[in-house]
Design goal:
Keywords: Transferase. InterPro entries: AGP_Transferase (IPR051678), Aminoglycoside_PTrfase (IPR002575), Hygromycin-B_Kinase (IPR016259), Kinase-like_dom_sf (IPR011009). The structure is a single chain. The chain is of the alpha+beta class. The chain has two domains: 91 residues, 2-Layer Sandwich (Phosphorylase Kinase, domain 1), CATH 3.30.200; 225 residues, Alpha-Beta Complex (Aminoglycoside 3'-phosphotransferase, Chain: A, domain 2). A five-stranded antiparallel beta sheet has the order 1-2-3-5-4, with helices on both faces. It has a two-stranded antiparallel ribbon with strand order 6-7. Helix 7 packs antiparallel against helix 8, helix 8 crosses helix 10 and helix 9 runs antiparallel to helix 10.
C-alpha cells in the first residue's frame, strides 16, 4: 500500500524493441522510435519511450499489487483539483503477456530536475530563490486537496481507507518502528531514544488537535519534480511518482526538499522554502512542532537506509540524535520565526 516503505527495487530487466512495439500498439500509441532507461528511475521501474504519437514514460514491474491503479488515482485527482502538471492520461495494461508483469504508460513531462549539475550551472541566485518559492507554492496547491479521513488509498476497493488508529499514533509508531529497525545496521543509544521521545512528546497536543486530512505526496524531492523557465518566469512543469502518497499533515512533504538544500549548503534556500510554504498553508497552528516531528521521521528513514546500504556521507562517529538534531532544530527555528512574523 501507499505508506509501505520499499528499500528494495523491482527492476525491469532486459526489454526488447518488440516488447515496446507491442505495448504501444496495445494502448493505441503508435510505433516506437526509441527507448532508454531513465537516469533516476524510481526503483529501476521506468523507461523513456519516444513514439510516433509522442514522448512517454513506461513504468513496469509494480512493487505491490495495485501500485499503478493507486498512482493513476492520485494523478487523475490532482489534475482535476490543482494547477500542478501531472502525467495524465495514466494508461495501464493489467495483463502480463508482453513483459511478464503489468505496466503503465504516461506522458513524459517537460522540464528539468533542479539537481542536474548542468542545469544548476545555468541558474543564478535569483533563479534559485524563485524556484524555492515556486516549489513551496506548488506543494501548497497540492495540499489544498482535503480528504474525509486520515489514511491511504485502497486500490482494490477504490476508497480512502482510514488508518487503524489516529494519524498521530500511525506517525509516532512509524518513527519508533524505523528507529528500532535502525539498530540492525547501526548503534542507537538509549540517549538517542530518549531524545526522540522528547521530540514526540512536545508535539502530541499539536497532532491531537489536527482536523484537516490533507493530500501528502510522500516523496517530494528534486528527482520527482520538473521546472522550466517560461515567458512569465519559472514554472513547475511536472510532478510525478505518487507511490508513497496518502492523506495526513501537509508539512510532511517539506523535509526531503529541506534536506536537499541543507546538505547542499543552501540553508538560506531551505529557510525561504519553509517561509514561502508557511505563508500559503491553511493549518498554521503548532506548525513548528509538527514540522520538527516530520523532519525527525525523515531523518530516521534516511539514517537507517544509509547505514543499511553503506552510504554514510557524514561523520560515522556521530550518534543519531546529534546528527538528526541539526535538521530538526533548524526547521523548528525557521518555522517559529514564520509564526512570530505572521
Amino acid at each position: 500500500m501507499t505508506t509501505t516503505i520499499f528499500f528494495g527495487s523491482a527492476k525491469l530487466g532486459d526489454i526488447t524493441g518488440e516488447q515496446i512495439r507491442r505495448a504501444l500498439a496495445r494502448l493505441g500509441l503508435g510505433e516506437p522510435i526509441s527507448y532508454r532507461r531513465t537516469p533516476d528511475g524510481v526503483a529501476g521501474q521506468t523507461l523513456f519511450v519516444s513514439a510516433s504519437s509522442g514522448e512517454y514514460v513506461l513504468k513496469g514491474n509494480p512493487l505491490y499489487e495495485g501500485q499503478f491503479v493507486e498512482e493513476r488515482f492520485f494523478a487523475n485527482e490532482l489534475s482535476k483539483r490543482t494547477n500542478v502538471p501531472v502525467p495524465v492520461p495514466y494508461r495501464i495494461d493489467e495483463t502480463d503477456d508482453i513483459f511478464g508483469w503489468s505496466y503503465a504508460v504516461m506522458p513524459r513531462l517537460p522540464g528539468r530536475h533542479i539537481n542536474e549539475s548542468s542545469f544548476r550551472a545555468e541558474r543564478n541566485r535569483e533563479d534559485e530563490a524563485r524556484i524555492a518559492e515556486l516549489l513551496a507554492a506548488s506543494l501548497s496547491d497540492m495540499h489544498g486537496w482535503k480528504a474525509p479521513c486520515y489514511g491511504e488509498y485502497d486500490p482494490a476497493r477504490g476508497v480512502v481507507r482510514p488508518f487503524e488508529s489516529s494519524y498521530k499514533t500511525w506517525l509516532y509508531e512509524r518513527i519508533r518502528y524505523w528507529l528500532e529497525d535502525a539498530k540492525t545496521y547501526s548503534v542507537i543509544e538509549k540517549s538517542d531514544e530518549e531524545w526522540v521521545e522528547r521530540v514526540l512528546a512536545d508535539a502530541e497536543e499539536a497532532f491531537d488537535r489536527m482536523r484537516a486530512p490533507t493530500f501528502v505526496m510522500g516523496d517530494f524531492k528534486p528527482e520527482n519534480v520538473l521546472v522550466r523557465r517560461s515567458a512569465n518566469g519559472w514554472e513547475l512543469s511536472g510532478a510525478f511518482d505518487f507511490t508513497a502518497s496518502y492523506f495526513g499533515d501537509g508539512p510532511a512533504d517539506l523535509p526531503r526538499m529541506i534536506v536537499y538544500y541543507m546538505d547542499d549548503g543552501e540553508e538560506e534556500l531551505a529557510r525561504r522554502f519553509v517561509a514561502s510554504y508557511y505563508r500559503r498553508c491553511e493549518e498554521k497552528e503548532a506548525f513548528a512542532e509538527r514540522l520538527k516531528v516530520h523532519m525527525l521521521h525523515q531523518r530516521v528513514l534516511d539514517w537507517g537506509c544509509a547505514k543499511a546500504i553503506g552510504r554514510v556521507d557524514w561523520d560515522p562517529a556521530l550518534p543519531f540524535a546529534r546528527w538528526a538534531e541539526r535538521y530538526t532544530e533548524a526547521v523548528a527555528e525557521w518555522a517559529s520565526l514564520c509564526m512570530r512574523e505572521a
